[in-house]
Amino acid sequence: MTVIGLPDGEADRLARLALTEDLSLGADVTTVATVAEDATDVGEIVARADGALCGLDIARAVFAAVDPDLDFRTRVHDGDRVRRGDLIATVSGSTRSILTGERSALNLLCMLSGVATLTARWVEAVAGTGAVIRDTRKTVPGLRAAQKYAVRCGGGQNHRMGLGDQALIKDNHVVAAGGVVPALRAVRALRPDIACEVECTLPEQVEQACADGATLVLLDNMTLEATRESVAIARRFGTRTESSGGLRLDNAAEVASTGVDYLAVGALTHSAPTLDIALDLR
Asked: How far is residue 197's CA from residue 26's CA, in Å, rounded to a whole number?
């Protein structure tokens, strides 16, 4: 599986961030005390559960930042599906260096693989409906690029990366502007070059937003009946639709069957359990 990778320098930035937390109070006391300075070993990074993989380049960057002489070799790639017991990668060299970088590397690898794994479950849940699973901005501060990369590794797509690359008019913007149409026109006047999505809670709002040129309408916490009605309205205008709110894995297929183009799932990044991955010395 091929996905668009991390931004340049992002793996190194995250490695530095993780190691700053681990080593800001000094060297790894336990490892220095228990492991001979000249000891060498091979650490095997192994899946302890089935899932989708993400974060290998970040793990590599962590070990390289600890010790550039460590040899990190992967057996699989980001985006691949792994099974419990699969060998993911090996890292060989100084035992002290391996153990010093172990937890920082695994923290990021397990977390991002968890996001990819949960995304893959959502993608599987709506398979055959034509709907696409997308993430939101509900990401951990400082980890947005990596978490959104993990969504791509799981087969999902990204929504906007920040507040300036796309516009999303939500309920509070509507209140502040005095209505859906005034809000949409204000955004168009300021930035006519970017896509503009409008959050709607009623089919009547969908009609207004589509008629005034919204790029996409976000159907927020709508019933299935209202979602179908809104999709039909949007299709008359050639406007895409995205469902959000109240989405669960067990109702994803039913919502997707209404004909919406996207399902916006904040849980992909804010509630994904980590994938169990371990490092064992041979």
From this structure: 48
Task: Find the catalytic residue in 170, 191, 236, 248.
Answer: 170
The number of domains in the chain is 2
Report yes or no: 180 and 169 within 8 Å, Cβ to Cβ: yes
Going by their DSSP bridges, the two strands 167-169 and 196-200 should be labelled as: parallel
**Beta-ladder partners of 113:** none
Verify whether residue 197 is a known catalytic residue. no
Active site residue 220: yes
Q: Is residue 170 among the annotated active site residues?
A: yes
103 is catalytic: yes
Q: Which of the residues 80, 197, 199, 229 is marked catalytic? A: 199
**CA–CA distance, 139 with 220 (Å, rounded to integer):** 19
Output DSSP code: residue 272. Answer: P
Q: What is the pLDDT of residues 232-276, one digit of tens each?
A: 999 999 999 999 999 999 999 999 999 999 999 999 999 999 999
Structural domain that includes position 137: 126-270
Catalytic residue among 13, 75, 81, 138: 138
**Catalytic site residue 199?**
yes
- Please tell me whether residues 40 and 134 are part of one structural domain: no
Domain check: are 164 and 226 in the same one? yes
Give me the catalytic one of 220, 229, 242, 261: 220
Tokens of 251: 């109702």
- Render pLDDT for 166-211 as a digit per residue (tens, 0 to 9): 999 999 999 999 988 899 999 999 999 999 999 999 999 999 999 9
pLDDT at res. 3: 65
Residue 1 has pLDDT above 60, yes or no: no
SS3 state at 6: coil
Record the pTM: 0.94
Confidence of residue 35 (pLDDT cuts 50, 70, 90): very high
Same domain (yes/no): 264, 132 = yes
The one catalytic residue among 48, 81, 103, 235: 103
